[in-house]
Amino acid sequence: MAPKRKPTTSAGAQLKKQRSVPTLEEKLAVLDLLRDGMSVSNVARKYGHNESSIRAIKIQEREIRQAVASSAPITAKVTSQVSCCAFTPPQSLLHATKQLIGRCGE
């Protein structure tokens, strides 16, 4: 039986599509459009995203609005929280080991 795919050459190979993460500003605009009554499919078409992505933004509305309200930069794509000394038991063991080795910054 012959192979179903033809072998590709390096010259004919295409680059992967880069994953795009919407900024908090775009997410707020999406939430405002949804709140004003625009359908999920129309919002998805307007921004060029899948409907499932728009629904996921709608589900995370509370977290997104809290991130913006907590003075996060409006152009940030992702918010993160740094934990300094709040260790769970496995992390505290790792932290103690790093202190003994001398790799911990504290």
TrEMBL record:
Pfam families xrefs: CENP-B_N
Protein name as catalogued: HTH psq-type domain-containing protein
Signal peptide: none
Stored InterPro entries: Homeodomain-like_sf, HTH_Psq, WH-like_DNA-bd_sf
GO terms, molecular function: DNA binding
Source species of the chain: Chrysemys picta bellii
Tree of life domain: Eukaryota
All copies of domain HTH psq-type, residue ranges: 16-66
